[in-house]
Every structure is written in C-alpha cells, then in structure tokens.
Design a protein that fits this description.
Two copies of one chain form a homodimer. In chain A, about 40% of the residues lie in helices and about 20% in strands. By secondary structure, the first copy, chain A, is an alpha/beta fold. In chain A, the strands form five sheets. In chain A, strands 1-6-3-5-4-7 form a six-stranded mixed beta barrel. β5 of chain A pairs antiparallel with β2 of chain B, so a sheet runs across the interface.
Chain lengths: ~500, ~500
C-alpha cells in the first residue's frame, strides 16, 4: 500500500504518477519511465505513466504522487491507501501498429482505440503515432468508423426539437467570424443553434477568442441546454461541455503537432456535431490559393466525402463552397472582429458589406432547413431579422444569458501601413495578413490585430492607409513592424 | 529574471520546465502545456516544454523549475538567475511534415532533424511522428543519410588499430548470447572488439542483462578505450558511452512504442558502429518462422540493403544468414545464459553444442577479417583458442577489468514441464519459449528463466523433462504456470 499524494502539476493530457526512487514497495530499478501502471483503490482503476522522483521533498518512499489530471480521476483524498500494478500497453495499440503497417482497420478497432484513449491508456506518443498513420492512408469507411467511435455515448438530448442547426467553416479565413451573426439570426427565427466551439491554432485568433471579448463562454452542459431551449442560441467553449472526451484529447495533439488532415478533421467534426445533438449542419468550404483548400476539385472531393460520411451517420448536411481568397470583414483579431459583428447586427452604415452578406447567405440556407419556409425565402427572412433589430436583440439575450462582458480596449501601439503607389488593389495575401495579426499578438491579446481599411477592387493613391496594426506590447509590436519594414504589405496594387 | 530550481523528477527524455501558475514574469494564461521555451543564463540555451504548477511547495512564482535532465544541461546551481523566451517548434519539424506527406527527404533534412533531436528540441510526440512517417516509406539513400546524421561527430578513435571488429545479430533468438563467447575468442586472437550494447525490449532478456550477471558494464568512454587497447575486448552498456546521443533518444522511443523497422534499425546500427570506431562488422540475420525475418527472400533483401548502406559509409561488412527457428543453448534468462557461456568457455562436457558451434563459426569469420590469416582457417583457429583455455582467460581478464561480480542465484520457485507422450521433438516454438521466460520474470530478475533439457530431433518418452521454469517471485510464477497449465508446452512431439 502507498499513500496517495497530489502533485499539483498540470501536464499535457497524460496521467503521470510520481514514485520515489527508493519506493518502499516497487523496485524502481525494474521500471523505466514509460512504464504504464494501473492504480487501484478508487472506483475504477486509473492508468498512468511513471516518472521517478529522487528526493523526499516531493514524494516520499511510501507515497504515490499523481499529477492533477490523474488525481482528479482517482477521486480519493490525499493519504488514501492505493496499490499499483504494472500494466501492459493498451491492447488496441496492436491495431495502431496494423494501421502504421498500412492496413485498413475495422469499426471494432476504432471503437477500442477511442475507448482506450478516453481512459487515458494512450501516451501522447501513442496518439501521435496513430494520427501520423491515419495521415498517410485512411478510407472513407474508416472515417465513418472513426467518427462513430469518437462520437461516444454522451449525446446531448434536445427533447422534442425537430431541427437543431449549426454552421461550420472548414478553414480559418482572417476576420471570418460570421458564426456570431448567423447564430442570432437563426435564434431570432426560432431554430435552436447550440454553437460549441474549440480553440483554433492556425489563424491569428479563433472564433472562441472573439466571443470571449463579448461574453463568458465557459458554460456547462446543463446550463447550455437550458439556455438554448429558452433563448434558442448559445456560443460556448467546448472544453466545458462533457462530450467527445477522446476527440478532445486527440484534437489537442493534432493541433499542437500540426498533424491534422482534412479526412480526420471530418471525423472529428461530425463526431462533435452528433454528440452535440445537431440534426442539420451547414458546412462552408472556402477555396483560395492561400486557403487550406486550394482548388474547386479539392473542395468537391471533400464535399463528397462529407456527404458520404454524414449520410451514413444520419446527419442532414448541406455543403456550400465559398471564396476563401480574401479576408472577410475589416478587423482581424478578437476585439476588432467583435466590433465588426456588432456593427453588422446594429445595421451601422460602416459595417463591412462582405461580412454581412456572407452571414445573411449562410443564415438563409440554415433557415431553409425549416420545411415550413418556402424555398428561396431564407435569405430574405434572414435580412429582415437583421434589419428589424431582432437579430441584435437575440444576440444581446445570448450574451446576457452567458454573462455579458465589457469589450476590451484596442492595443495602444499602432502603426498605419500605406499604399506605396497609385492604382487598384488586385489581391490581398490572406496568409500575410493572418501572420501579421498573429505577430501583432492577436492570438494572445484581445486588443491586438489588423484593421483593414481597403479591400480588393478598391482604387488607392500612394500614401492611403491600407490597414492599421494594433499591438498590446512592445515585443509583439517590434515583431510585426519588422515584418512590414521588410517592404511587403500583403497588398498587390496594379 | 527567475531563480533556477532543480525539480528532482526524471522524465522520459523530454526536458520539462515547471512554472508557477502565478509566475511573476510570464503570463501562464497565454501558455498551453506544449509551449516550447528556451532558457537563457547558462553557456548555451536549453530547450524545454512547460508544465504548470499550482502550488508554492514545488515551485514559487519567482522560480523556474527544471527536471533532472534539463537541470543538468543548464549547468548552473540552484538559485542562478535565468530568463526564458518562448520558442517556435524546431525548424526541422517542417521536414518531418514533408516526410509524413510521403516525400523523400534530403541529407540536409536528416542532419537538421537529428541535430534538433540531440538538442532536445523535439517532444517525444515529434519523435514518434517522425518514426511512424519513416515506417511507412523510406528509400535506401534516406537510410544512408539518416545513418550519417545519427553517427554524429563523436567517434571513438582507436589510433593505429587497422581492424576494430564487431558482431551483431539482427534478432533476439531465445538463449542466443554467442557474443559473450565470440568476444573473448577474438580478444584472445588479438583483434580489438569493443562491444557497446543496448538493452533490448523484445526477448525475455537481452545480452546486456546476461553480461550484467557476470561483471559491471557501466564503463565510460575513457575506460572503455583503455581496456580494449590493453585487453583487446570489452562488453559495456551503451548508456555510459557518449556517442550517438540522438540515436539513443530515438531508440528508446522506438522500443517503448514498438515503432522500430528493419530499415531504420539498419541506420541506427550502422551509425552506432561507425561512432564506436568499428571498421569490420559481421552481421547475423537469423531466419525462422517465429523470427523477425521469416523468409530467405526477406533476409536477402535486408542483406543487400545493409551492404548498400555499409559500403557507402566505408564499413567493411560481412553478412551471414543463419537458422533462427530454434532457441540457441539451453538457458533462456540472464543467469542461465551466463551459466551456458561459462560452460562453453570452460570446455565442459555438458556445454550446449549449438551455442559453441555458432560462436566458433562467427568468431572464425571475424578472425578472417585479418588478412594475415589464410582463407578458411578462421574456424580452426577459433576452436583452438577455445580448447586451449585462452578464450576463457581472455573473458576472465575482461570481466576483471570491468569488475567481476558473483553470479546471481537461480529462482527458488521451479516447475518442470514434461513430455505428454513418447516421440520425437519436431519443433520448438521460439516465441512460446521467449514469452514463458518473460512471464517467469527473466526481463526483471536475473535468476528467472527457462532451462531447456531437450532440443529438436531428440527422442523423448512421456514424462521426460522438456524444460524447467525458474521464477524469483510468486506473481511471475503464477503467470508462467498458468500459461503452461493451458495445456501447451511449446514443444511439438510426433
């Protein structure tokens, strides 16, 4: 018996057990650090990987230390008596090896892999290996099997609602936060739309960061259900909603290691939507030379794959292919994007046209999920809900329900980037703008980002402002200005 | 500035930095746990991955904790002032992504990947991803580039020695520890043979475990050189010899995750031999239905690949293909194998014939690396060195130089497994015997293992002992006896 001890370290997904080098019960010399153990004494055994401690200050020889993740799972107080047994690698790792060797796996294989991941039996290395193996080869049926496995058993039940709608964009186009306009329009119409969003790693800032500047987003499943049933909408952090646990673990490792592929992304997406209880899903595939999907052919391939898997999962899916070659809206960065959204919802004169039009188009298609609506009426109905202020009211109700917060200030360090000559803007490099926003600090500070003054097609004179940079600290500001000072602006003027 | 603190945790390869959640300098809210940092203040920056500590007892807000690995690399005392900067993922990870996408990498790519790994800039996940990507596709030229990169700059210099020989077996055949007979024969002849061995994970026990029952094996590079130049032989632990640092890191992850392939194994092997200063290498490829290499065709493919890469690396390589279908010798397990080796070296009547013959054959081929020896004389010279006791004397000298130790006792829990009928043994299942030895505890306890009383071709009567099981504790003994009690013995009698 060892006494349980909480070692207050937050690791990255993995359960870690800390054992003293002179442990009174287990011979450390026979243990290497990737030894997997099973800890008994709680309701269910908890799996963990061992690390060795050389000093009594942290863990004594008669103690077993657990990091925060593992300690929580154990569900016992400090000092509780526990035993440990060595445990072999998770049985489903044999299936991962077969995948690495280039084989097609069965639905049972995917089910047991996902089950073992959700029980923390996979090391992060195991998960990365699984992802890389799937990266190199996966069939449409495997994507289906993976999606079903990832969905899991916890599914949000929306009772008698016939349509539970959502919108999802397959890429991070700078500034494109139409979700935050679509959701209130759909809510104002009366269709329930629970938006459960995860953090993104590719663009300067994600939907989650923009929403965080407007309201609290940490809402648990119970409050999410209550709010959506009452207010018809919610925009919340996926971290707090207890669905798709294995998918969350995998997604973190995918993002951190750049191991995501479109194919596995589809499985994750559809699993999440199914577990959220979504019945009708509008998927937006932006195509552009600097976007993830570069050609119509790729987009069509992806559309067919989504339809194939979605149909078999029983989801009603509408896929739309859009222009992903330009930023959407004016602001790129949390507070700037939030400002644009409020401008659109308040019908302000200077609200960005492209942002409003894209949102109305998408909201219209979602409204047409309702069989009571006459075909082709969705866009007009959406437009009227926006014009009348009903969409703004719905948004305000959602923000208040979640806990509205004061908008953060824009960064105090600014720099204007101007046109170097007279002419017409023929192209804006979205990757350049996304990188500039990231360097300016948009991923870290809500007030940082890029505010676009001009769009493609505009005529400019030398010296006209193309965009303004906002940063919240000197470090970020130095990074982004050195990028600009190399002579490039990201705008092609001819 | 943060004050350096040693957190006495031994992790698994990775450098880990522990930062308090209310760190006085860096905003933890902007950090996720796979954030990579560079720590400044020592001679060279040290890379580490961050974990967050929620409690002052371990690390205070004005401190930066480092695990044992990272603290050593830092080379500063506790309390020293250090700064940290966030650092992007290692640049060579872009090449890993290209490999994942199925591309051929250049020699520069491999050089920078290996360099970053040796500087601890790769997470274990990054390394696993790299391995899985190589598993799915690698060209012979890439194996060559990988081997050259893994060799590194630290190469043991054997001065004026013209031949520095070694023997390497590509598989773990139960009981096959011929290395420990070959080495003293070659030493007695006068050729230098520095055996630098790593731990194995597949068989019940490895060469390193057997040698550890006879002598100290933890010898550093300086003493290794001295010993080999004086005594012509050494059998030491690779962990203590400072060569191929990146390969060691990779090999651990390969073994722990079962990600090794023959192709990458060749790169690792040849890199290690080059860095050890080996000039002439005899490679043994055992073929057998239960072995890693199952057919002659596979063995021939492997042989050609080894010759292709070896030739271009400037190594003199002799490849021999042997029978890997049966255990070699009688004992399977550290102390039992050591007993067999001493029997052979002491010319005992009951020494296993197959072990002696295989060792003489291999030693003979190595002696023929010496151009002064007449072709075909190697085997006879080896046999005479063994018969005369000179090989035993050479072994004893090597053991004494490293620090001879008392042989461990055999396990006190024993069980005899007997023939169930009269007949002739037509086959011994090597995988069964290896697994039985492993369950008996041979991987953990030197005295545990399987002692084979009979070999293929022997006639037996019902009730004759086929083998005896030795275990050192009740747990292991219960495991192995339950395997036997299922009715199987691993022996086919017809």
């Amino acid at each position: 018996m060892l006494a349980l001890k909480h070692v207050p370290i937050r690791s990255f997904n993995e359960n870690i057990a800390y054992i003293h080098k002179d442990c009174s019960i287990y011979k450390v010399s026979n243990i290497n650090s990737l030894t997997r153990i099973e800890i008994h004494g709680g309701e269910a055994p908890v799996f963990a990987f061992l690390q060795i401690v050389d000093n009594n200050k942290f863990v004594r020889p008669d103690e077993l230390g657990l990091n925060t993740e593992a300690f929580k799972q154990m569900g016992l107080p400090e000092g509780a008596e526990v035993t440990l047994t060595l445990t072999p690698p998770a049985p489903s790792l044999a299936a991962v090896r077969r995948k690495i060797a280039g084989n097609v796996l069965s639905s049972d294989d995917y089910a047991s892999i996902v089950d073992d991941i959700s029980k923390h039996r996979y090391s992060n290395m195991d998960i990365a290996s699984f992802l890389v193996a799937m990266n190199s080869f996966i069939t449409p049926n495997e994507i289906l099997d993976l999606a079903e496995a990832l969905r899991g058993d916890k599914i949000i039940d929306w009772g008698t609602e016939e349509i539970v709608a959502d919108y999802y964009c397959m890429d991070d186009i700078p500034g494109n936060k139409v979700d935050l306009i679509i959701a209130p329009i759909v809510a104002a119409y009366g269709l329930p739309m629970p938006k459960i969003i995860s953090s993104s790693s590719t663009s300067g800032s994600g939907l989650i960061d923009t929403m965080r500047t407007l309201a609290n987003i940490d809402v648990d499943t119970r409050n999410l259900k209550k709010q959506v049933l009452e207010k018809r909408g919610a925009i919340v952090n996926a971290e707090k909603v207890e669905i798709c646990e294995a998918e969350r673990i995998i997604a973190k490792i995918e993002k951190q290691n750049g191991l995501s592929t479109m194919e596995c992304g589809i499985a994750s997406l559809l699993a999440n939507k199914l577990a959220s209880g979504i019945t009708h899903l509008l998927i937006d595939i932006p195509v552009g030379i600097r976007a993830k999907i570069k050609t119509s052919a790729e987009a069509t391939h992806l559309r067919k794959l989504i339809e194939y898997v979605g149909d078999r999962l029983g989801l009603y899916i509408d896929v739309t292919i859009t222009d992903g070659s330009e930023p959407i809206g004016a602001g790129v960065g949390p507070a700037l994007e939030a400002r644009d959204i409020i401008k659109v919802l308040k019908n302000k004169e200077d609200a960005p046209d492209d942002l409003r039009e894209k949102a109305l188009f998408m909201a219209g298609r979602i409204l047409e999920f309702d069989s009571k609506l006459r075909g082709g009426q969705g866009y007009l109905v959406a437009k009227e809900l926006l014009r009348s202020g009903k969409a703004f009211d719905a948004f305000d109700m959602i923000l208040k329900a979640q806990g509205k917060i004061e908008s953060p200030k824009l960064g105090h360090l600014t720099r204007d980037v101007v046109a170097e000559k007279d002419g017409t803007i023929v192209r804006i490099n979205t990757a350049f703008i996304a990188k500039a926003a990231l360097l300016a600090g948009a991923g870290q500070y809500a007030g940082a980002g890029i505010d676009l003054y001009r769009k493609t097609g505009d005529s400019v004179s030398a010296g006209d402002i193309l965009y303004r940079i906002y940063s919240c600290n000197q470090n970020d500001f130095a990074f982004v200005t050195s990028m600009i000072e190399s002579g490039k602006t990201g705008f092609d003027i001819e």
